[in-house]
Amino acid sequence: MVRGKTQMKRIENPTSRQVTFSKRRGGLLKKAFELSVLCDAEVALVVFSPRGRLYEFASSSMKNTIERYKTVTKDNINRQTVQQDIEKIKADAEGLSKKLDTLEACKRKLLGQNLEECSIEELQSLEVKIDKSLLGIRAMKTRRFEEQLSALRLKETKLRQDNEDLYIQCQKEQHLELEAPPAPVTMAEQGQDDAVEVETDLFLGLPGTGRP
Length: 212
Description:
Blueprint: H1 14-39, E1 44-48, E2 54-58, H2 62-110, H3 120-179, H4 187-197
Antiparallel strand pairs: 1-2
GO cellular component, one term: nucleus
Keywords: Coiled coil, DNA-binding, Nucleus, Transcription, Transcription regulation
GO molecular function: DNA-binding transcription factor activity, RNA polymerase II-specific; protein dimerization activity; RNA polymerase II cis-regulatory region sequence-specific DNA binding
C-alpha cells in the first residue's frame, strides 16, 4: 500500500497531533544520535512539546555546544556587520564622488567653462542663476557698506563728545586758576622788598664838605 504525501499544515485533531509528535520526536532524536556517531559531529537538539515539556539530545555537552554556537554566531554576525559597514562606506563614497563631480561640472559652467555641450535651455538657466547670485552679492555688499558707515558715524559722534568734554574740562580749569587768591608773601620776601626800597645817605668823608 502506497502512503500518500503528508500535507504540511497543523494537525487539527489533538490526539493525532500528539501521536505524530511522539513518533517524529523519536525519529528526530534517533537521527541526531546517528549523525553524531556516524559522522563524528557535535550535535545538540532541543525540542519543546506543545505542553512545554523539554526533550533534548547532546552528543557531548549541551552547555559547551550552546557556548560554541553563541561564539560562532557572534563571529558570523560581527563579520557580516563589518562587511555591511564596508559596503555601506563604499556606497557612500561612490555617492559623494558622483555629487562632487556634478558640483564641479556645475561650478565650471557657472564660471563660463565647458559650455559647448550646454543646450539653450541650460544656458538660460545658468544665466538666471548668475543674475540671482549677482543680486545677492550686491545686496550683501550694500549691507556691509551700510554697517561700516553706521560704525563710522558712531565713532565720529563719540569723538565729538570726547572733544566737547575735554573743552569743558579745560574751561573749568582756567576759570579756577583765575579765581584763585594770590599767594601770601613770606617774611623773607618782605625783607627783600624792604631792603631794595631803603635809601641811605651814608658816605665817607668830612661832614659838610660834600666830598668824599
